[in-house]
Amino acid sequence: MLCYPEIKKKDNFKASSCLAASNNVTMYKCYSKSCTYCTTCNTLLYGTCSNVKSKYSSSSCLLLDAQAYNATENCCDGYYCCNTCCSICKSCSGSKCTSYKCNCYCCQQTSNRQCTQSTFSCWKAAAIFEYRVDTKTYKSSLIQDCESTYGCVDDFARQYTIGTTYPCYYDPNDPSTVTLTTSYSKWKVC
User: Fold this and answer.
1) Residue 19 DSSP SS3
2) For 157-179, what is each residue's pLDDT tens digit?
3) Which of 39, 40, 125, 167 has its Cβ near the most Cβ atoms within 10 Å?
4) Which residues pair with 32 in a beta bridge?
5) Average pLDDT, integer, range 30-57
6) Is residue 89 part of a domain?
7) pLDDT (tens digit per residue) in 111-148
8) What is the number of domains present in the chain?
């Protein structure tokens, strides 16, 4: 199923040429947490995961001021139900019976599950394009979130070389809106 915005781009956007004027890379901090299956955390050794996370950032990805930040720290994440046990019940209608899980309860738990939290460097690559419509020059950027894969940044820089001109398409009703492709997304569902 095609989306109206894609049809609009394909049918209405005008062809132009975009010059890759510059590119840049922005580093930001990412956050992840992984936990053991059912290991109880020693609260005398480790702080709570929420306290450890707030020590580094208040959200999963914040911009860094200067340099990369990589840290891993154990933490305690509170109560966790590791395994749920259920009875098997039957429901019959006439001669046909169906079995289903019922009367479920937590049969294995830990009062404080042990986890590991990590903060690490992530990157966003950006290419700044310039293009002209009539007598006015416009600038637009294409941004690729590479997360923690720095090779993605290198690939992006190779794909959009500074000083190279690329085909692009602008919206004649709003020339500040530009795209590098008017192809339909085969995977897109609207």
Assistant:
1) strand
2) 899 999 999 999 898 999 998 88
3) 125
4) 118
5) 85
6) no
7) 999 999 988 888 999 999 999 999 999 999 989 999 98
8) 1
Check if the beta carbon of residue 41 is closer than 8 Å to that of residue 76: yes
Q: Which two tokens stand for residue 79?
A: 């109560």
Token match 């922005």: residue?
26
Number of H helices, E strands in the chain: 3, 9
| Number of CB atoms found within 10 A of residue 58's CB | 8
CA 121 to chain centre: 14
Reported in sequence order, the residue ranges of 42-164 that DSSP labels E, i.e. its strands, are 61-63, 71-76, 80-93, 96-110, 113-133, 136-147
Angstrom distance (rounded) from CA 4 to CA 41:
52
Closest-CA residue to 118 (of 44, 53, 54, 65): 53
Residue 50: inside a domain? yes
The answer to whether residue 130 sits within a structural domain is: yes
Tell me the two tokens of residue 142.
């294409």
pTM value? 0.61
Domain that holds residue 163: 11-77+112-179
Share of residues in the chain with pLDDT > 90 (%): 53
Contact of 98 with 91, CB cutoff 8 Å? yes
Contacts of 185 (CB under 8 A, 6+ apart): 3, 6
| The length of the chain, given as a count of residues | 190
